[in-house]
Structures are given as C-alpha cells and as structure tokens.
Amino acid sequence: MSKEIVQRVLIDLDRCVECGSCAAACYGSHSRMPIIQSARQGPALLPLICRQCKAASCVDACPVQAMRRDDNGVVQRALSLCIGCGSCARACPFGVLPNDVTRRQIAKCDLCADRTADGSAVPRCVAACPSGALQFADEHKAIEDKLLEVGGRTTGQHPFKRR
Amino acid sequence: MTGTSENRLARCTLCPALCGLGLDWDGPDRPRVAYPAQAGTGLCPRGSALGDLLAAPSRIRWPRQRRDGGAIDVKLDGAIAAAAERMAGGATVLIDAASLPIEQIVAAADIVAVWEGVRLCAVLAPEDEQVLMGVEASGATYLADEDLAGCDGFLIIGNAFAGNPRCARGVLDARKGNPRVPTVVIDSGGGVPESFASLRVPCPAGGELDALQSEQVASAVEGCRKLGVIIAAEAGRGGRWARVGFLAGRLANAQGGGVAVQTAGANALAALRLRVSLGMVSLAEAMTPAAGDEVRVAIGVDVLGLLGWAGPPVAIAAAAAPNQTTATAELILPTALPCEMGGTFIQAGTKPVTSAALLAPPAGVPTPAELLGLLAAAAGVRVPQSDTKPAVPERLAAPEPPEVAAPAIDQSALVAAREALHHADGALTAQAGWQSQLQPVPELRVSPRDAEALGVGDLADVEVETESYRTAARVRVVEYISPGTLAISEGDPRARRLLSYVIDADRDVLVSRPGVVAVRRAAR
Q1: Which residue of A has its CA nearest to B172?
Q2: Within a domain: residue A104?
Q3: What is the interface pTM, i.e. ipTM, of the complex?
Q4: How many angstroms separate the CA atoms of A130 and B237, rounded?
Q5: C-alpha distance from B501 to closest chain A C-alpha (Å)
Q6: Quick check: is B408 in a domain?
Q7: What is the CATH number for B157?
Q8: Same domain flag for B69 and B102
Q9: Domain limits at A31?
Q10: Cβ of B39 and A126 within 8 Å?
C-alpha cells in the first residue's frame, strides 16, 4: 500500500510577484512540456499543478493504467503507457492537466520525484521561486500559515482562459 | 552539477541578482539548467532560458556572409580577414558590456587602445545608463538584494520586481517583520509592485520624475531611517531617468538608505564606469551616422533590436543567436553566450563577485575579447597581453543632471514595461522554448476603462500602431495603470520599434519617448 503524501507545494499569495519562474523551471526540466499553467487570482499569478488528490479521478479515468500512484504516494504518469487520449485531463476536477494533443502525451507534475523522493531536495518550481512565495511543506504548515494550496482553482487548461 | 565547484559558482549575469546556476544533461546534446536543492535564491525565467540557448538549433556556430541575396557559410579565418579588411577605413565596435565580466571589457579596451582608427563603445540599455549616471551624481549608497530586508521603507520606481524578481524577497521579508513598512510605488506601466504598494502615486506616461518630487512621496517616507529605493528604468518615459536617479539617490541619502538599480545585465554599473574612465565612446555617438568608410561592428549586442531601429545596417555582427542586427549585417560571426564566460562582476557598486562559466563556448566560437583580438591580429595590430587583475571601477564624478521637460502628450500614450520573461530586447530569451511558447506576441497592458472604450477584454488580439511601427499584441487588463497610458513588453523587438529611440545630441544620450498610440481589434 502506497504512503500518503506529506509535503506539498504551497503558495503564499502575499509573496507571489508573477515572475513565472516556477513555470519556466518546470518546463525546462520535464521534457519541455508546459506542466505548470498560470491563472490569475487577484494580484497573484498562480501556478496550477497537480493537487495529488487522495482519491485521484485521473487514475480512475485512465484506460491503460498509465496514471498510477507510486510508493511515495505521488500520482505519476508512465510515459511509455500513455496513449494521449486525454481522459485524465477531462476527469481532473481542477483542470490542472494540460492536454497537449500535438504530442499525444499528457504531461503531469510528479513533485520532481527524481530529486524529492529521498527528501534531499525540493521540487524545481520551489527552488526557482525568487520571492519565497512557493514552499514545499506539509499540510499542517499550510493551515498554520494560512497558505493556499497550489492548483486549487477550477480553471481551463489554457494558461489564461477560465471555464 | 557541471559549472560548480567549491570555489567557483556559475552565475546568471542577466541582472544584478547574479543567481547561481548549475547544469544538467538530458542527453549528450541537450543541456538544461539545474536548480539548487533547496529554496532560497531562485532563478527567474531568463536564467532558466540559458540552458535552452546553449544548444539551441538557431545557435550561430560559424560565420555567414551575405552574397547574392542570401547568406552562405564561410570559414572563420576567411571571415576574420574579410572583417578586418572591411574595418580598415575606420570602425566603431559595440560590445554588450552590461552582461560581460570586467575582464572582457578591459581586454577589449586594451586592444582598441592600440588599434588606430577603431573606437569602442560599451553598450548598456540607454535608460540604465541614464539612471546610473544620476545615481552616481547623487553620491547614494548602492544596495544589494540582501541589504533590502534591513530597510524600514521602500520607494519602488518602475517594475523593479520584473527587473530582478529576487529583490522582491528583501521587500517582502521586511514587510513580514513589520506589515506597516511604507512601500511607495511609482510606475506608469502598471507593473506588479503596484499590487504590493501602501501608496500608489498616480503616474501617467513619462510622469515618474514629477511623481518623485510630489509631496505625497516626501511625506510617505519622511519617517524612514533606512529607505530602500529600488529602480527599474524602463523605456518610453522621455529620457528623464538621469534626473530620476539623481533625486532618488538624494532622497535615499536623506533617509539613511540606498539605491538598488535593477539593470539589464549584472555589470551595467561597472560597464558605465569603465566606459567613462577608459574614454570609450557613448552609444549615442557610436550610432550617430558617420561620414566616410567607417563601419560598425556589433559583438554580442543586438543594437538595432535594442534601439528599435530598422537600420542603418551594422556591417559586421557577432552574436550567439540570430537577432535584428544579424538580420541585415553583411558578415555574421559567432560569439559566446554571457553564461559561457567566467569573470568578475561588481555587485552594489563595490562588491566583486566571481562567476565561473557554466560551460565553455562551442569549439571555434570566441568570446568577445577573443574575437576582437582575432580581428586586430588580422589587421596587423600587435595585440597586448595583460595579466593585470581588473580592479573595482571607481565611482564616477558625474555632474548633477539637468532638468528635462515632461513629455507633452494629450492622447493615449504607449510606454514600455519590463518583464521577468525577457532580457533586454529579447534577442536571447525569445529563442528559448518556454518564452516563445508563452508569449509569441508582446503583451499590451491596458486599464479597465481603456479596455472598455476599445471594446477589448483580457487576451484579446489587437493591433498596436505608433507613428514608427505597427505590430500585433495581446491585451492584458491591469488594475493599476493610469487610463490613457498603455504599456507594452519591452522584451520584444517588435515592441521596441513602436517606441524607437532618437539621438539627443545635446545630452549625448538616446531617448525613447512615450508614443501616441492607436489600438484596434485584430481582424479575425
């Protein structure tokens, strides 16, 4: 049975300066796919990434089990199995899965598992944030500090359009 | 991580933050930037773009020569010989000094000093040059990012958080400790700092100087014992930045603080000091049409893109990637990217910081100083060898800048806005994958009232026209821009042509004024 995620990417809206560093860092490090989308929330430009739901609709929707939860509780996409059908993108209630039909593959946030799995590093978006708006912290800190979880808006998949 | 060692860290040199950089590889031909393990310093989209640029398909790796309406590849030694011959009747060499280490600037100056008929211009963005001259004249202390958290009040002029996103951390850390820290913002472009302001000073296009001298600003900061003034001097404001820098510096002095100027390029201040102390020509003089056979040679600087000019063509252009200047040059030569050169950068006016090269340039691609040395040798000049370690350039004894009248404009006016997305005119960063995907056309900021009057909303495609140019843009409706003022991304060469520079010979500067603008919905 996989573990539950303890640490998540959290955003302090009072520190976001809309520089796009998070999205640029993610793009360059994940096969150049636009994983972090941006949506406007008042003065802040929110990076929208996977919420790593406990009951993940995308995992249920995937017809080929390309979406799966790993041993650390992180929902990941198996590149070799993904057929680009877009079922996961449509199932996601938060609209945070970009549907890149041109490449017939769905890019997905994996919390930079290659560097966070052993606890030695933070996701690249957090490392790139120059203003300190993004943190990689557990949920209790979020409640304590009144931080808004990243990806908590229902928006369209295009960076700027809304449903 | 390639590019790092215990003592020599590679750094992004595109702004004064000098963020640390590392390198990883997705394969033998796909370098990418590596990020620190922990949060702390960050890296903005410009720095992130550097990995893409190292192996970009558009990278200029060998010379090309225009012939019969096209361009053909030529060998380096032949290109160098042809360039040297072309320069025989006199030449002005322009280098992108703001992003270069001191060693490159000094080496270039040493070469030109013994090369008869050749002059050198160390280029920095005209607005940066003007505001820095003003701050130098004021005698103000310069602040680095880490100094800002100790300030008890801030005056932010222009979109400084886009000029250097890391400077925001210091402002926000100061406010976390004391939410009542005054944060006064003057920005006719309606940038992000406005949304953090405790006082937004109304500022129409080109109105920064008048806003700075207002009673509102004086009373807002009078209680500060250490005022942090943070300036990003943006284009299209009418050439008043020297006076802004001077008065802002005087205000910082009076309130026990200092000034942080967020320039395009980490070594802009050092480059300006060296340009004056080593007797190089100004950019205005370098770009003034010359009589006779003198040619211009642009090394690592997209001077036409920066100034928004279509011509006259620069005869010889060396660049890492194609740009507006190489598009019309007779001879195109390769040169290194800023991140492919190590050396010394001066932070906050006095602090030398060493940066290692992230990666060596590709084989056969010279640094600007090496290229100038090759050209000089081909011209028969005995190139000096120098092992002297460059010193921190001394502060300039600059005079108080004169008053400049406010631009008189009674219609909708267009100004340029700094973004964290692009460096300078975008010549380098526009080649990066994320930037080109995210912003294929420049962004046009309009107020809600102007958007309603134009019949456009967020993300509408429009055509923007001034007397000098017309281009497509995408609308972004922003709350804090004055009605009647519109702001376009300055990191796009098409946008710069809307606000192209003119030479002010009296003041020996280049000036970009707010442009009378017409905006129409794009035809479907």
Answers
A1: A15
A2: yes
A3: 0.91
A4: 28
A5: 27
A6: no
A7: 3.40.228
A8: yes
A9: 7-149
A10: yes
